[in-house]
Specification:
Order of helices and strands of chain B: EEEEEEEEEEE
Largest sheet of chain A: 6 strands, mixed
Radius of gyration of chain A: 13 Å
Distance between the termini of chain B: 36 Å
Shape of chain B: globular
Oligomer: heterodimer
Number of strands of chain A: 11
Radius of gyration of chain B: 13 Å
Chain lengths: ~110, ~110
């Protein structure tokens, strides 16, 4: 089945710096790659996604890049703010009509 | 519009006891999912449903059963709870498979002693 690996598991940055989280996947047939954000004690929520027909997508301070050849995609957060502190999950679609999630990255933005 | 609602939010069980988690959504979504979240392991799919009356196994289905008798409800059952099933359980729904945004419930924290 699909395997999604996510790195790093924890990331600490200073407010205003950039943060990058990377994921690799194993199934070359995967075409959809969303990112979910989970604040402490809350439910995960979709923040951005990308499909295999594009290499990059931006939404204000967040962006996602995709390299299908290398089978990896990354989340980029610029000008980080304390409210960006959360756990971020990457995911990829599988043949089961469901998503396989990475293990999560705990981002801490230091004020 | 409550979205996705899970009950109960907290439960403590003894090994061997049974229980059912209820997930209800009011968005008329066809697709519903049960995930478990464990530290360092992300969200793992237990079972899912592509419509009323259908269910399918996910990555970690052993020890769990599900039912989708009504479109808006998806039940997760533990017939004989084990300590390894201590986890936070999330239900989610979407309007289309794979590329549809997952709308999660608030989670149910289950402890099995």
């Amino acid at each position: 089945g699909e395997n999604v690996e996510q790195h790093p598991s924890t990331l600490s940055v200073q407010e205003g710096d950039s943060a990058v989280i990377k994921c690799t996947y194993s199934d070359s047939a995967s075409n959809y790659f969303p990112w979910y954000k989970q604040e402490l004690g809350k439910r995960p929520q979709l923040i951005i996604d990308i499909r295999s027909n594009v290499g990059e997508k931006k939404d204000q301070r967040i962006a996602v890049t995709l390299n299908k050849t290398a089978k990896h995609f990354s989340l980029h957060i610029t000008e980080t703010q304390p409210e960006d502190s959360a756990v971020y999950f990457c995911a990829a679609d599988t043949g089961r009509r469901a998503l396989t999630f990475g293990s999560g990255t705990r981002l801490q933005v230091q004020p | 519009n409550a979205g996705v609602t899970q009950t109960p939010k907290f439960r403590v069980l003894k090994t061997g006891q049974s229980m059912t988690l209820l997930c209800a959504q009011d968005m008329n979504h066809e697709y519903m999912y049960w995930y478990r979240q464990d530290p360092g392991m992300g969200l793992r799919l237990i079972h899912y449903s592509v419509g009323e009356g259908t269910t399918a196994k996910g990555e970690v289905p052993d020890g769990y059963n599900v039912s989708r008798l009504k479109k808006q409800n998806f039940l997760l059952g533990l017939e004989s709870a084990a300590p390894s099933q201590t986890s936070v359980y999330f239900c989610a729904s979407s309007y289309r498979p794979i590329t549809g945004e997952l709308f999660f419930g608030e989670g149910s924290r289950l402890t099995v002693l």
